[in-house]
Amino acid sequence: MAKILKWLIIFFMAITLSAAISGYFLYNALSVDLPDVKTLHNVQYQTPLSIYSKDNLLIAQFGEKKRTPVNIEDVPQQLINAFIAAEDDSFYEHPGIDFKGLLRAGLQLALTGKKKQGGSTITMQVTRNFLLSNKKTYTRKLKEIILALKIEQEYPKEKILELYLNQIFMGHRAYGIDAAAQTYYGKSLSELSLAEHAMIAGLPKAPSIYNPITNETRAIERRNYVLHRMLELNHITQQDYENAYRQPSTAKLQSVSPEISALYLAEMVRQKIFELYGEQAYTSGLKVYTTINGTLQTAANQALTDTLHAYDERHGYRHCRSDARRPVCQKATEVAPTNIGDTMPATVLQVKNNLVTASLHSHAGAWERGPLIEIPRENIKWAVGATGRSPLQVGDIIRVRQLQNNSWALTQVPQTEGAFVSLDPSNGAILALTGGFDFFRNKYNRVTQSKRQPGSGFKPIIYTTALEQGYTTASLINDAPIVINNPGQENEWRPENYSKRFYGPTSIRSALTHSRNIISIRLLKEMGVEKAVATALRFGFTEQQIPKTLSLALGSGYASPLQMARVYATFANGGFLVKPYFIERIESNEGEIIYQAKPKIACPSCDSNQELNRSYAPRIITPQICFLMNSLLRDVVQHGTATGAKVLGRQDIAGKTGTTNEQRDAWFNGYTQSNVAIAWVGFDDFSPLGNRETGGVTALPMWVDFMKTALKGIAETPLEVPTGIVKAFINPETGLLTASNNSGGIWEFFQADHVPTSFMSNDSTIDYGHADERPTENLF
Predict the structure, then answer these.
(1) Are the beta carbons of 545 and 557 closer than 8 angstroms?
(2) CA-to-CA separations, 158 to 176, 419, 499, in angstroms, rounded
(3) Which of its termini does the chain have fewer beta carbons within 10 Å around, N or C?
(4) What are phi and psi of 187, to 5 degrees?
(5) DSSP code per residue over 546-612
(6) Which pLDDT belongs to residue 101?
(7) Angle between helices 459-468 and 517-527 (to 10 degrees)
(8) What's the N-to-C CA distance of the chain in angstroms?
(9) How far apart are CA 546 and CA 538, in angstroms?
(10) Do 124 and 144 touch, CB atoms closer than 8 A?
(11) Measured between alpha carbons, how far is residue 710 from residues 128, 423, 648, 668 in Å?
């Protein structure tokens, strides 16, 4: 017996020694390609790209994974307790592995031949999520054990728990507990209830099976299991358990809600960041702060929306019921059951004399009835035809929108489109930008991508050239019929004014104020097209954009609204060409600034040496020319085609309307010294807007609505007269000096070396010959 016992001891010792030696060699073999656990000191979570306004309002996020890493100090203790109860109740006691759990899993494998889920501690899950693949193999399990032991030696428990809570997948693209709280409850971690803590803690085991959105019953069962484990571990009281147990699920799938709507700008940012960082842009947690002002962006969105609706309402209601030959009928099969822009689908339930009752469609993509609304008669009357009767009947599918006074109105999706952009003229920062009515319907950004004729909005380039060539604001050009023969074209060109009238000798000031086409053409012909082209190139246009014909006088080239904003910023800032930009700074996931914009700024007060400094924008027109152009463009608002802007009650507004042939484009390009903004309206297919839909009628209201917000609290800026500008008393009918007692005379600004030298007295002309002999008022 003793001999048998001796051999048994020897056998077990041999087995033990063999196991130890095998384990040693296995450990060494596995350790060769094990990752270094010290890399977790500088872990980089996959976090989406976030885009913000300059005033820190969220605009958009891009990235497959929704995640916001949190410090363990900011996690509520009860939420930590819930995870400990659900996933690893001995977390604070074990060295990284749960021997009992591993033994149970091993016995299950030996008895059934099947691998059993279990035996994985939180530390082992950290190794799997950060350092190993999710592929279930025996060697991976062994690697998990080795790495878990090493992690426990390298990191405190709190750091391990923080890594785990920020990395775990929680379903619906949410990774980590903060993203889960936002995704399912739209709350911060500190706002969650005990029942919600338990629901979130129950997700990691099987995010699809125990998901409160896709499988509420199973999710509640799992939640209640977690609550029971918390009770068993004395993390909660019996009363806490019973109260939470009785709670229904409050989870609803939440989306990350932008704080302001600037989707066209967000897409511009996304493209630029992707260009710089590639796919890493969507996972490295970059925070991009744009130049957008949240208040101005909201105002721009509203102004564009209201302007397009106003245009659409002027052109009638497109509703019909049975005439299939009309392609724009709003039948149930033709009205999308989703929101488009600010318009929502609804079904008419009742029609009375002064009120329409309708039901909003409750779910996107379905025709289910939702909340009831009432539409007062005054919000329908625009659609009433010659009969004076409401066009609506019970059962009609219509579109509605909520007005700023919270009343509901009948509407339709505008067929025309628009664009709006606002710049800070001192440095080119984009303050507001909207590229169309609805980004999700059409992502084409009309602010940056469109190529539209600027029409009369180009005329300031022509007039700048003329002033540089020695013309004055009082120079007279004959507004009379002109015939232009274009080589290679069968028909001659007979341009005309918008009014189809001719006005005879007209001053340059009056011509620009009233946008006289004939004057611009004659002026360009006298100067030479090449001189105007050179000026346009200075203002940032390219050769391809500029036709080398007299049609250039009427803006026959092409430009985007953003480019027009750059042009008018030059007049607003004193004569400097700034470069539009929209990214103010980029921060890493840790808050380090990795890019800071350094725009070249306009500096009217700088001397010639300072202008050579690389931080200053180049001057492209002199202070004197800029002053004269500002004087002319202010007159456009006070006396010309943009008098609609006078409702703002300011004298420091300047700009120019623009209307192209057959009213295919309607523009208003306007500015003050603090803000330049461009409004455009037109059809994407270049269809005419219709009779009388000019820049002053169609686009100007958008600009005015925006400026009501943009100029609130901004003091008026008087037009400062630079050195080299003088005033002279002239006869506007001749452009010559006149006697001070001439009741028809006016004061006019001139460059000092271009003041008229002739004096009109008693129908005779006196030539002074020298500038210092002329009756002028030197302003300095």
Answers:
(1) yes
(2) 15, 52, 79
(3) N
(4) -125, 160
(5) --SSGGGGGT-S-B-HHHHHHHHHHHHTTSB----B-EEEEE-TTS-EEEE----B--TT--TTGGG
(6) 66
(7) 40
(8) 127
(9) 12
(10) yes
(11) 54, 11, 11, 16
d(CA 144, CA 34): 10
Of 720, 724, 727, 733, give the one whose Cα is nearest residue 760.
Answer: 733
- Strand pairing of 758-761 and 736-738? parallel
Phi, psi (deg, nearest 5) at residue 741: -95, 10
- Of the CA atoms within 13 Å of residue 194, those in its CB half-sphere come to 20
Using the structure block, give the residue that is written with the tokens 């030197």.
778
pTM over 0.70: yes
Please report the sign of the dihedral spanned by the C-alpha atoms of residue 440, residue 443, residue 446, residue 450.
Answer: negative
Pairing of strands 49-52, 287-290: parallel
Give me the residues paired with residue 357 across strands: 350, 374
The number of C-alpha atoms within 13 Å of 233 and in the hemisphere containing its C-beta is 20
Number of residues written out for the chain: 780
SS3 of residue 340 by DSSP: strand
Half-sphere exposure of 541 (CA within 13 A, CB side): 28
Contact of 723 with 780, CB cutoff 8 Å: yes
Instruction: Give me the average pLDDT of each 10-residue run along the chain (780 residues).
Output: 66 61 51 78 90 97 91 96 94 86 61 59 91 70 83 94 95 94 94 96 94 95 96 96 95 88 97 95 95 98 98 86 43 64 94 89 64 93 78 90 95 96 98 97 96 98 98 96 79 89 96 97 96 98 96 96 98 98 96 96 74 81 98 98 97 97 96 98 97 96 98 95 96 92 94 86 50 46
Neighbours of 33 (CB within 10 A): 7
Residue 206's DSSP bridge partners are none
Distances (CA, A) of 760 to 569, 734, 743, 765: 38, 8, 13, 5
Residue 174 β-bridge partners: 66
Q: At what angle do helices 216-232 and 77-87 cross, to 10 degrees?
A: 100
Judge whether 496 and 518 are in contact, CB under 8 Å: yes
Burial (CB count within 10 angstroms: exposed 0-12, middle 13-18, buried 19+), residue 87: buried
CA distance 399 to 339: 9
Q: Which tokens sit at 634?
A: 């202010």
CB 256 within 8 A of CB 58: yes
Pairing between strand 583-587 and 593-596?
antiparallel
- What's phi and psi for 598, nearest 5 deg? -130, 70
pLDDT the model gives residue 500: 92
Rounded to an integer, what distance in angstroms lies between the CA atom of residue 613 and that of residue 777?
36
The 3-state DSSP class for residue 401 equals strand
The Cα 474–Cα 476 span in angstroms is: 6
Angstrom distance (rounded) from CA 423 to CA 435: 14
Dihedral Cα 612, 616, 621, 625, nearest 10 deg: -110
Of 747, 541, 539, the residue nearest 626 (C-alpha): 539
Q: What is the pLDDT of residue 2?
A: 67
Q: CA 301 to CA 537: how far, in whole Å? A: 32
**Would you state the pLDDT for residue 323?**
41
Report the chain's C-alpha Rg in angstroms: 37
Short-list 221, 242, 241, 219, CA closest to 230: 241
Sheet of strand 344-351, all strands in order from the earlier edge strand to the far edge = 369-376, 355-361, 344-351, 397-402, 408-411
Contacting residues for 189 by C-beta, under 8 A, at least 6 apart: 70, 74, 75, 76, 79, 177, 178, 181
CA distances to 143, 369, 397 from 348, rounded to whole Å, are 66, 11, 7
Tokens at 649, concatenated: 């009650």
Active-site residue set = 87, 456
Q: Which residue has the tokens 């003229």?
A: 425
Q: Where are any strands of DSSP class E within 215-340?
A: 287-290
